Amino acid sequence: MDINEKFAYMATGQPYNDLDVELVALRDAATVKTNALNATDDVDEKARLFQALVGKTGPRPFVNPSFRVEFGRNIQVGADFYANYDCTLLDGAPITIGDHVLFGPKVGLYTSNHLFDATERELGGCIAKPITIGSRCWLAASVTVLPGVTIGDNTIIGAGSVVTHDIAANVIAAGNPCQVIRPITAADQTGFDGQQFKLNH
């Protein structure tokens, strides 16, 4: 089984060997790439290195250090992706992120999980399920997203939340486990028009 077949198999949610030598080598390669990404302050170079790291990206990605991935190749992001400090994306299965998505500090998306049986876990047994984040979402500081979760467009996930199940579009959700608090409505608009430090008189 070649590496593409292995990743296709992993994406089905069936148990796989996390200690497979090819997977270990790819994790090591991703660490080298993220080390280079985290070391540069040049915006254009950062975008180039990010593009070389992930499977697909839209224009103008920006990630602060220390950004980490498991493999990188299973990550797809849209336009204007922004990740604040200490973001971790474990992409044993595909991670798909829409356009104009904001991640606060210490956001973690984890597609993989160790098997529950101790003997199987010792042998490297894992499963992975895809994660999807819709467009224009904001995941605030220290949000954790677990395997198999989809978050709909425009949704905000509050700081410290652990997202264990799908969250609908156009809502504010928070907690552990994360639950919908309320919809986002026109009452949330402030009149901000993109002008910085505009004074109202």
The fold-level CATH name is UDP N-Acetylglucosamine Acyltransferase, domain 1
Report the C-alpha radius of gyration, rounded: 18 Å
Ends apart, CA distance between termini: 68 Å
How many strand segments? 20
Strand line-up across the major sheet: 3-6-9-14-17-19-20
CATH class: Mainly Beta
- In the CATH hierarchy, what is the architecture at level 2? 3 Solenoid
Give the DSSP E fraction (strand runs of 2 or more residues): 25-35%
Instruction: Give the helix proportion (percent range).
Output: 10-25%
Question: How many domains, in number, for the residues?
Answer: 1
According to CATH, the homologous superfamily is Hexapeptide repeat proteins
The structural class is alpha/beta
Strand/helix succession: HEHHEEEEEEEEEEHEEEEEEEEE
Largest sheet: 7 strands, mixed
Number of helices: 4
What is the average per-residue confidence, as pLDDT, rounded to a whole number? 96
* Uncertain runs: none
Inertia-based shape: globular
How is this structure best described in words?
This protein has 201 residues and is of the alpha/beta class. The chain is built from 4 helices and 20 strands. The chain has helices at 3-10, 21-39, 43-53, 118-122; strands at 16-17, 56-57, 62-63, 68-69, 75-77, 82-83, 88-90, 95-97, 102-103, 108-110, 112-114, 125-128, 131-133, 138-139, 144-145, 150-151, 156-157, 162-163, 171-175, 178-183. A hairpin with a 2-residue loop joins β19 and β20 (178-183). The longest helix has 19 residues, at 21-39. The protein is globular, with a radius of gyration of 18 Å. Its EC number is 2.3.1.-.
